[in-house]
């Protein structure tokens, strides 16, 4: 899959299923960051879904909440993923992504999140979709992205 951003911080994420590598392109550096998503980097302590808890962009969202520890049992993060089943995904796409427990998270949601809040010890990050446009994406979008590397 490809995620395109507004370029303020991040330009693009490109996930390659065969290699299980996430390639991240930031706006402020010319280096492509490669992350192997096969390694486990946390232990899930708690995971659960609250039904129709909040509206985001006029969609009623369920919220998947996650609490995890690092591999030495220290608190790592609390995260909330706001999603609506109108934006389904095939959770099998994520089954090899063990880093940050994405394999479990997407298996539970079976949808794309439209809002994410991640809280760590000294930092909280909130990401909210600003608009949603359902459309077919031609294969050429992915092919062009691959040729950038």
Sheet/helix structural class:
mainly beta
Number of strands: 9
Radius of gyration: 16 Å
Helix content: 10-25%
- Spatial strand order of the main sheet: 5-6-7-8-9
Provide a count of the helices.
2
**Looking at the structure, what is the overall shape?**
globular
Query: What is the percentage of strand-forming residues?
Result: over 45%
**Mean pLDDT level:** 86
* Low-pLDDT segments: none
Order of helices and strands: EEEEEEEHEEH
Please give the alpha-carbon distance between the first and last residues: 16 Å
Question: Care to describe what's here?
Answer:
With 149 residues, the protein is mainly beta. Helices cover 11% and strands 51% of the residues. The protein has helices at 102-109, 139-147; strands at 2-4, 10-16, 21-26, 32-36, 43-56, 59-69, 75-88, 111-120, 123-128. A 5-stranded antiparallel beta sheet has the order 5-6-7-8-9. It has a 4-stranded antiparallel beta sheet with strand order 1-2-3-4, with helices on one face. Strand 8 and strand 9 form a beta hairpin. The mean pLDDT is 86.
Could you give a short description of this structure?
The protein is mainly β and 149 residues long. 11% of the residues lie in helices and 51% in strands. Strand 8 and strand 9 form a beta hairpin.
